[in-house]
Amino acid sequence: MEFRVLGPVSAWRDGGEVPLDGAKQRTVLAVLLLARGRTVSDTRLCQLLWDENPPATFAAQLYNYVSRLRKYLGDEVEIVRQWSGYLLRTGDSRLDIDEFERLAGLGRDALRSGRHEEAARDLHEALALWRGATLSNVTDHLIEAESPRLAEVRMAALEDRITADLMLGRQADLVVELSDLVAAQPLHELLRSHLITALLRCDRQADALAVYHQGRRVLADELGADPGPALAEAYQTVLAGPGTPVVAVAPRAGPGWRDVRPAMLPPGAHDFCGREQELQALAGLLAGTSPSAPQRTLLTGMAGVGKSALALRAAHLCSSEFPDGQLYADLGGTRGNATDPGDVLGWFLRSLGNAEEAIPRRLDERECLYRSQLAGRRVLVVLDNSANYPQVRPLLPGDPSCRVILTCRGRLSELPGVTRVEVGILDPAQALELFATIVGLPRVAAEPGAAHRIVQLCGRLSIGIRVAAARLIARPHWSLRYLAQRLADERFRLNELRLGTLDVRARIEGSYQELEVESQVALRRLALLNTADFPIGAAARVLGVTPRVGEEVAESLVDARLLEIAGSDGGRRQRHRFHDLVRVFAREKADPVDHRVVTARSALSA
């Protein structure tokens, strides 16, 4: 099978085109092909299909596009559901952009080695693979996202091909082509310098000077800039006269971040408060320079407790300990759209100075290059919102001088050699300090009792306090007492703890959606029990399953940080309890069947 994206997106089998349904289905195919064997998240696909306005049925529509693609493409390729997204395995199929990059790379290498005939042949073949406007039959959103990059890749190959043709004395054939290219892109200095060179070699010195002066005026009028080195050198060659040897401009270096020390940490929270003990522990772990010192630290805790804020605070405070830079990635594990580690390695490798064409496509090759480039360096890597061990494993440096901070709701029990730091809810003093820092000390001092009440109703959960404080800032006419009254009604509490992107319910929902159905049912029913805490056997009784199955379900809720351990003897005599806001959330989710079951078994003993 053959796939084409260098022009209209299409699939071909045995010389005939495979029928596809329309622009959106072709968009899905193109995105998966351009990902080169990496997983594309649902979020990314939705953005490229519908931009910021996906329909309510987007999940079903996306599933339908993929399902029909599987049917049309047959068994020669495989579309796999992975990492809350899709991955396309093309097997032995041919992709035109792969062949283009192979030929362009061969041509570029030949050009740098002085093998001009070989370079021209390979580059001509590479450019012949482009069949009209790239991605011409997909959504505008994909065109906007990918066309600039693809145009740049094609232009780089075209510049190299023109250089090779000039070196072979083909200037007469190039004048018309270069004149059209310069007319279409008057600010492109390298193309203009090539045109000047071709004209001069055709004994058209006056025309060459006119092309230079026109370019100088365009640059001054449009950019307020003088000609760059390539154009200036071509001009000096013209002035020197036709008898002076003309040297074609060398092929440009590939794009990349050169001589940049990676500093990818996003800004930390300026109103960060408390957590002195955790910060001190983290600083000690990060400052250690001995190869035997702990290299990995995992911050773990329930949704919204403040793990990311703590990680960034510690990372900024200790950034001077890492002179070779800091790498950061939000892995999306708390949003149900975990980021593919191959994509993250691509970001990291670019920030370490690698040009796009130098970055391998395969995950294992990216992993090897990444670890090789960190060897001998002291770099801090922050992996925020990790999903699971298979996701983070390729992102761990191998050099013992590097340090890693991870955040995850779970404990990543498979991760070896890690120091785990439990991040709990704020103590009363810290919770009040955070609230006062955001709202302002005068308002808190005027109503101290109401302030204490608000942070307690927020369960001393960092995100809850931040939302409550943000609502008071947005409504300066509200008293603290009024907000406390609104929060006191459990039926509407989570509605009150939502403002813009800050949403307590959404944070807890992320953990809930990752549960198995049986665990979701247990969570809802346990929340209906009118008791502060309950034994581990309660899960079995509300589900009507064996004690062993009930114990496993309860442990899954503890692992998801939706239940807390209230007491344990180290075995099965455990007691569990809810965080207040998790209980409110779970009760919202309860349906009539849940209520009937719990009522019927109201004789449950605590």
TrEMBL record:
InterPro entries linked: AAA+_ATPase (IPR003593), AfsR-DnrI-RedD_regulator (IPR051677), BTAD (IPR005158), OmpR/PhoB-type_DNA-bd (IPR001867), P-loop_NTPase (IPR027417), Sig_transdc_resp-reg_C-effctor (IPR016032), TPR-like_helical_dom_sf (IPR011990), WH-like_DNA-bd_sf (IPR036388)
Classification via Pfam families: BTAD, Trans_reg_C
UniProt KW Transferase keyword: no
Domain of life: Bacteria
SMART domains: AAA, BTAD, Trans_reg_C
DNA-binding region, residue range(s): 1-90
Domain OmpR/PhoB-type: 1-90
Keywords assigned: DNA-binding, Transcription, Transcription regulation
Recorded family membership: Belongs to the AfsR/DnrI/RedD regulatory family.
Protein's name in the database: AAA family ATPase
